[in-house]
Design brief:
CATH topology: minor pseudopilin epsh fold
Strand content: 25-35%
Helix content: 25-40%
Structural class: alpha+beta
Strand order of the largest sheet: 3-2-1-5
Number of domains: 1
Largest sheet: 4 strands, antiparallel
Shape: rod-shaped
Order of helices and strands: HEEEEEEEE
CATH architecture: 3-Layer(bab) Sandwich
Number of helices: 1
């Protein structure tokens, strides 16, 4: 009687199941740092834009005056002046990634930095993934400075 070389159907099914399980678990763990990284990069960009608007108000760029930021769920606008005017071509729109959003804004919206001092009302801003899995809170002091990122 000849002995055949190879694997039985049951052995092949078990191996394929183990490989599929390994693939699923590894892909889940590889995507989590990417999601966290995209949130961190966006958070850094938001803080940089806030500081830049505050600096322009303090130094009197473009002839002086107030500068501010207006927040929407999936984007924010950088503007000059004491109030936000939708559709103004001088406004700069910054869109968030499609998976990110501002879920809570407890600072006055728009957030306006006062000319000369750069002061702005205290409050907090929450940025995170739309599904709520990862969030960060930016806290502002009465001088308009981001004091804490949770």
């Amino acid at each position: 009687m000849q002995r055949s070389r190879g694997f039985t159907l049951m052995e092949l099914i078990i191996i394929m199941g183990l490989l599929a399980s390994l693939f699923v678990f590894s892909s889940i763990n590889l995507l989590r740092p990417q999601r966290s990284s995209s949130l961190e990069v966006t958070l850094t960009q938001v803080v940089a834009d806030l500081r830049h608007q505050q600096l322009k108000a303090m130094t009197g760029e473009n002839g002086g005056g107030d500068f501010g930021v207006y927040f929407e769920t999936g984007s924010y606008y950088l503007f000059s002046g004491s109030s936000y005017t939708p559709g103004d071509p001088a406004n700069s729109q910054v869109d968030l990634e499609s998976t990110l959003q501002f879920s809570a804004v407890s600072v006055p919206n728009p957030l306006v930095f006062q000319a000369g001092s750069g002061d702005a009302p205290p409050g907090a801003l929450v940025l995170g993934h739309a599904d709520g899995s990862l969030i960060h809170t930016l806290n502002f002091n009465p001088h308009g400075v981001v004091t804490q990122v949770d």
